[in-house]
Amino acid sequence: MSIYDYQVNTIRGEQVSLSNYQGKVLLIVNTASKCGFTPQYTGLQELYEKFKDQNFEILGFPSNQFKEQEPESNDHIEQFCQINYGVTFPLFEKIDVKGDTAHPLFQYLSAEASGILGSKAVKWNFTKFLVDSDGKVIKRFAPTTTPDKLQHFIEKLLE
Question: Coiled coil: which residue ranges (predicted)?
Fold first, then answer.
Protein backbone atom coordinates (compact mmCIF):
# COMPACT_ATOMS: atom_id res chain seq x y z
CA MET A 1 0.00 0.00 0.00
CA SER A 2 0.96 3.59 -0.56
CA ILE A 3 -0.69 6.85 0.35
CA TYR A 4 -1.78 7.10 -3.27
CA ASP A 5 -3.97 3.99 -2.93
CA TYR A 6 -6.48 5.75 -0.66
CA GLN A 7 -9.76 7.38 -1.59
CA VAL A 8 -11.18 10.22 0.49
CA ASN A 9 -14.23 12.44 0.29
CA THR A 10 -13.91 16.18 0.04
CA ILE A 11 -15.80 18.26 2.58
CA ARG A 12 -18.52 18.54 -0.09
CA GLY A 13 -18.79 14.76 -0.45
CA GLU A 14 -16.91 14.25 -3.72
CA GLN A 15 -14.70 11.17 -3.75
CA VAL A 16 -11.08 11.81 -4.77
CA SER A 17 -8.01 9.64 -4.95
CA LEU A 18 -4.90 10.72 -3.13
CA SER A 19 -3.08 9.76 -6.33
CA ASN A 20 -4.22 13.21 -7.51
CA TYR A 21 -1.52 14.57 -5.18
CA GLN A 22 1.30 12.42 -6.55
CA GLY A 23 4.52 14.39 -6.86
CA LYS A 24 3.57 16.87 -4.12
CA VAL A 25 4.78 17.24 -0.56
CA LEU A 26 1.75 16.81 1.71
CA LEU A 27 0.96 17.88 5.23
CA ILE A 28 -2.03 15.85 6.43
CA VAL A 29 -3.70 17.20 9.58
CA ASN A 30 -6.65 16.08 11.66
CA THR A 31 -8.49 19.22 12.71
CA ALA A 32 -11.27 20.48 14.97
CA SER A 33 -13.08 23.81 15.26
CA LYS A 34 -13.59 23.92 19.04
CA CYS A 35 -10.13 22.93 20.23
CA GLY A 36 -7.43 24.89 22.00
CA PHE A 37 -5.27 24.22 18.94
CA THR A 38 -7.86 25.56 16.46
CA PRO A 39 -5.88 28.83 16.01
CA GLN A 40 -3.27 26.68 14.24
CA TYR A 41 -5.50 27.06 11.18
CA THR A 42 -3.88 30.50 10.80
CA GLY A 43 -0.38 29.05 10.70
CA LEU A 44 -1.44 26.22 8.42
CA GLN A 45 -2.94 28.71 5.97
CA GLU A 46 0.28 30.75 6.10
CA LEU A 47 2.33 27.64 5.28
CA TYR A 48 -0.06 26.84 2.46
CA GLU A 49 0.21 30.34 1.00
CA LYS A 50 3.99 30.23 1.22
CA PHE A 51 4.50 26.86 -0.46
CA LYS A 52 1.39 26.03 -2.52
CA ASP A 53 3.08 27.06 -5.77
CA GLN A 54 6.01 24.73 -5.03
CA ASN A 55 4.17 21.39 -5.20
CA PHE A 56 2.94 21.51 -1.60
CA GLU A 57 -0.54 20.77 -0.28
CA ILE A 58 -2.16 20.71 3.13
CA LEU A 59 -5.02 18.25 3.52
CA GLY A 60 -7.31 18.93 6.50
CA PHE A 61 -9.42 16.13 7.98
CA PRO A 62 -11.89 17.22 10.67
CA SER A 63 -12.57 14.70 13.43
CA ASN A 64 -14.95 14.70 16.37
CA GLN A 65 -13.14 11.97 18.32
CA PHE A 66 -11.45 14.16 20.90
CA LYS A 67 -13.90 15.53 23.48
CA GLU A 68 -16.40 16.21 20.68
CA GLN A 69 -14.52 19.31 19.55
CA GLU A 70 -15.82 19.05 15.98
CA PRO A 71 -19.57 18.51 16.41
CA GLU A 72 -20.77 20.52 13.41
CA SER A 73 -21.73 19.43 9.90
CA ASN A 74 -19.25 19.42 7.03
CA ASP A 75 -20.91 22.54 5.57
CA HIS A 76 -20.57 24.38 8.86
CA ILE A 77 -16.92 23.29 9.25
CA GLU A 78 -16.07 24.57 5.78
CA GLN A 79 -17.74 27.94 6.43
CA PHE A 80 -16.12 28.25 9.87
CA CYS A 81 -12.64 27.64 8.45
CA GLN A 82 -13.10 30.08 5.57
CA ILE A 83 -14.72 32.87 7.59
CA ASN A 84 -12.56 32.68 10.72
CA TYR A 85 -9.19 31.59 9.29
CA GLY A 86 -9.35 32.23 5.53
CA VAL A 87 -8.62 28.55 4.85
CA THR A 88 -8.17 27.78 1.16
CA PHE A 89 -6.33 24.46 1.44
CA PRO A 90 -8.40 21.32 0.79
CA LEU A 91 -10.68 20.14 3.56
CA PHE A 92 -12.25 16.71 3.66
CA GLU A 93 -15.27 15.08 5.27
CA LYS A 94 -15.29 14.62 9.01
CA ILE A 95 -13.79 11.20 9.77
CA ASP A 96 -12.50 9.06 12.61
CA VAL A 97 -8.71 9.14 12.94
CA LYS A 98 -8.16 6.59 15.73
CA GLY A 99 -9.46 3.26 16.93
CA ASP A 100 -11.30 0.50 15.09
CA THR A 101 -13.39 3.02 13.14
CA ALA A 102 -10.41 5.08 11.94
CA HIS A 103 -10.42 5.89 8.24
CA PRO A 104 -7.97 3.58 6.41
CA LEU A 105 -5.84 6.60 5.48
CA PHE A 106 -5.25 7.42 9.14
CA GLN A 107 -4.66 3.77 9.99
CA TYR A 108 -1.92 3.83 7.36
CA LEU A 109 -0.44 7.16 8.45
CA SER A 110 -0.40 6.07 12.09
CA ALA A 111 1.33 2.80 11.24
CA GLU A 112 3.94 4.50 9.05
CA ALA A 113 4.91 7.27 11.51
CA SER A 114 4.57 6.49 15.18
CA GLY A 115 4.20 9.11 17.85
CA ILE A 116 5.96 9.60 21.17
CA LEU A 117 7.30 6.38 22.69
CA GLY A 118 6.27 4.43 19.57
CA SER A 119 2.56 5.09 20.00
CA LYS A 120 0.56 4.39 16.85
CA ALA A 121 -2.74 6.06 17.81
CA VAL A 122 -3.49 9.67 16.97
CA LYS A 123 -3.67 11.25 20.43
CA TRP A 124 -5.36 14.60 19.75
CA ASN A 125 -6.55 17.17 17.24
CA PHE A 126 -3.95 18.81 14.99
CA THR A 127 -1.63 15.82 14.78
CA LYS A 128 0.31 16.40 11.57
CA PHE A 129 1.82 13.92 9.11
CA LEU A 130 4.43 15.06 6.59
CA VAL A 131 4.57 13.07 3.34
CA ASP A 132 7.27 13.46 0.69
CA SER A 133 6.64 13.84 -3.05
CA ASP A 134 7.04 10.07 -3.51
CA GLY A 135 4.22 9.38 -1.05
CA LYS A 136 6.46 8.25 1.81
CA VAL A 137 5.33 9.27 5.29
CA ILE A 138 8.36 11.12 6.65
CA LYS A 139 7.38 12.34 10.09
CA ARG A 140 4.55 12.79 12.57
CA PHE A 141 4.28 16.04 14.51
CA ALA A 142 2.47 16.41 17.81
CA PRO A 143 -0.54 18.72 18.16
CA THR A 144 1.63 21.08 20.20
CA THR A 145 4.03 21.54 17.25
CA THR A 146 2.90 24.78 15.66
CA PRO A 147 2.86 25.11 11.88
CA ASP A 148 5.74 27.63 11.85
CA LYS A 149 7.99 24.89 13.30
CA LEU A 150 7.33 22.75 10.20
CA GLN A 151 8.67 25.22 7.63
CA HIS A 152 12.23 23.86 7.76
CA PHE A 153 11.06 20.28 7.20
CA ILE A 154 8.85 21.32 4.27
CA GLU A 155 11.62 23.35 2.67
CA LYS A 156 14.00 20.37 2.83
CA LEU A 157 11.48 18.15 1.07
CA LEU A 158 10.80 20.76 -1.61
CA GLU A 159 14.52 21.12 -2.54
Answer: none
